[in-house]
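To whoever is on call:

I kicked off a structure prediction for a single chain this morning and the downstream step that reads the tokens threw a length-mismatch warning. I double-checked the sequence; it's 627 residues and nothing unusual in it as far as I can see. Pasting both halves so you can look.
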Amino acid sequence: TFIINARYNIVLTFLLLLLGGIVTAQVKFNTNISAVNTSLDEYFQIEFIIENAESIEDFAAPAFRNFRILQGPSESSNVSIINGSMTRSQSVSYILMPLTTGKQTIPGAIAVINGKSMRSNAVTVAVSAEARNPGANKLPRNVPFIPGLPDRREDVSEEYRLLPDEDAKSRIMKNLLVKLDVSKKSCYAGEPIIATYKLYSRLRSESRITRRPSLNGFSVYDMEDPTAQSLSVEKLNGINYNVHIIRRSQLLPLQPGKYVLDPVELENKVEFVRAAELGKGGGRGSGSPMERMMDDFFGRSQPGSLEEHNITLKSEPVTITVNPLPEEKKPEGFDGAVGNFNIKAALKKKIIKAGEVAELEVAITGAGNIPMINPPRITLLPDMEAFEPSVKETVDKKVYPLRGSKVINYTFLIRNEGDYTIPPVRFSYFNPADKTYRTVSSDSLSIHVDKSNKSLNKPADTPGLNDGVAARSGWTDAVTKELVLGGAAILLLIGITIYLLSRKRKKKVISPVRSVETAVEPSITAVAPVSLEQAADALEEGRSQDFYSEVNKALREAVCRKTGLASSELTKFNISFKLREKGVGPEPIQDLEAILKECELALYTPIHEERDMRNTMEKAGQVIAQL
């Protein structure tokens, strides 16, 4: 009965743990819309979002009855990591314009997620009529450009009229172009730049994005919503153009090197009116220059035919040179922060009791590559035991460079009473404006630790009380001794039973002939307590983010076993110092630091090459073997 109950307890515990893992990674399939109230002259975005899916197959959008699709489908993916919890999401979005008034219901999308058919929620949009000027067929003047949305503005230019023998393609190439502007073509690693994709137009066109730029080598932060941009006018080569912003992003370069910003590609539909030959086909009068001028003045257009032309345009690629940060005067402890920052530190409680947890909040504020800032190392006294810090990040992506804060909450345990001083927290960064390294420090902080209340529970030195305690203690010791001996006997019987059962099963399963392979395999498992098996599975399944996470976890576990450091103590300085102390050479330490840095940077890079991942896997295995 004892063995059966133990088995039930183990199975129940396993199921509870499994259920907890499933709940934390619950799959969600939702429909979101940017506006629930709109009009016939307005447009809105609908987005189908799938979270925490291992596989997505057979995605089917609903039939958008009574709506016109202006753009879509547009696909995107996102990975967010908050306090070690990772959420993956993939979305498909459309931009729609209503065709009729009233309440319109859009059904949910359908997809096969993790092998199971799921449907997102339906949404309802209330569409109202909007008064228009008689004969007008236009959107308001401040309507932004959306790929796929017709450019219907009041100002009609002569660029829409073709002469009888004029080449339409030549006219389009002179009056419609796509351009990529960058704030600078040379920068330092970690220094943000702005990349803006623009459509310059002097024509009436419908444009649709057919190829989006892949910005490899950068962490990308979109500064503006393309659906909320107003039209502007810019002069290019002495000619005024209507300019539509396709995309404006801040790019944070991750590593030194030369990187090419890929072009954006647009498919454009342009309409022209080709004038009839003068004096033929019903042209007005003789077609003299004076008559043509009078026709234009009074708004009388010459007869002609409507032509539609399709043309694909793309921007020119731009190469960005990312320079390494200077080695000269680089401060010890510098960890890649680039920009201009300040630091403050504060204790949540200045008086605690021994054995209680103290909380130190360190806030780094400023402008620069805030998402890439790592928690600074804090110096604690021997009586203090530190835990893994938590991080909260706030960033304004619409400001250049990125502006915001990173707040790190350090928790540590103080075991003994007394007065303690926490040294200043130092933080170093590189300022690209003056090309110098700077170090800022917080103030030192004092904390008072009172005697713990637990000491009041100790027995007093009263003889009578001690005698009673001793008498009860002797009886308790005797009972405890019998229980321990009985429990040990039961455990011994359980162990013998399990051993005999396992031997019996092995005789049935294992062949009596022992090959060389079966003789070698157990020794490999025993020699490699730190395994890259999970990373290998992620690599084969194409889960790049999970791959780098598992490699990082395996390397840190190997360092902990080699040095005896706790996971909360695995700073760059501690790892290097302790490994040298254990006799590890400089080359394995450098390889280890490089791989850990690569794993860290991979969290900000959505696309990874399989070849690079396999190289990382091989190097990580060599480092673990050397440790």
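Update from on-call: the warning came from a stale cache, not from the record. Cleared it. Sanity check on the structure: The radius of gyration is 35 Å.
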